[in-house]
Amino acid sequence: MGAGTTTPSVLIIDNNPERATSLVQILEASRYEVAVPLRLQEDLAVQVSRIKPDIILIGVDFPGHAILDWVAALHAEYPCPMVMFSRDERSETIQAATRAGVSAYAVGKLTGARVKTIIEAAIARFYEFRALQEELEKTKINLAERKIIERAKELVAQQRGCNEAQAYQILRKMAMNRRKRLAEVSQDILSVAEVLTNKL
């Protein structure tokens, strides 16, 4: 959001000056902070990073592969809600734009209420998708750490001649004494075991 305000800042990227001007007027009437519109060009990512908008609106009549590849690259470098205004109604284009990182794809007449609704939907979809990605990443990390702990537990059980429940308690005590997470201590044990094995 813009400094000292909760009003979202918007950047318009469009080679069509008439559509860009219309969007600026609609957004300013809706109390959005609107940056000076930019045209589609190769060094756009640098300018976007400098402006730091909360939302990006992209106007392109018929987005081809080159445009969508550029959108995907921009989204990877500067992830934020993106809305694409286009004249291309084909489902394959809409799907390709969505895969590229577009949160909302709109075709048709631009009106104040419609543009505002589309932007709000794009914001909601973007943050919902990001939350799902973060949850998935946490799940992957948890699974990976669980495997590390299981391997360390088996190793401790073999070395100490105890069962896995006792080995787990040993690992927990080591983690508490070293003020480390259980997965970190487990990884330390596996790393030491690997070094010793390689020296044999």
Tell me what the structure shows.
The protein has 200 residues and is of the alpha/beta class. It folds into 2 domains: 9-110, Response regulator (Rossmann fold), CATH 3.40.50; 137-199, Arc Repressor Mutant, subunit A, CATH 1.10.10.10. 63% of the residues lie in helices and 11% in strands. It has 7 helices and 5 strands; from the N terminus they run βαβαβαβαβααα. It has helices spanning 17-29, 44-51, 65-77, 91-100, 112-160, 164-178, 182-199, and strands spanning 9-14, 33-34, 55-59, 82-86, 104-107. A 5-stranded parallel beta sheet has the order 2-1-3-4-5, sandwiched between helices. Strand 1 (9-14), helix 1 (17-29) and strand 2 form a beta-alpha-beta unit. The longest helix has 49 residues, at 112-160. It is elongated, with a radius of gyration of 25 Å. The N and C termini lie far apart (58 Å). 26% of the residues are buried. The model has no long low-confidence stretch (mean pLDDT 90).
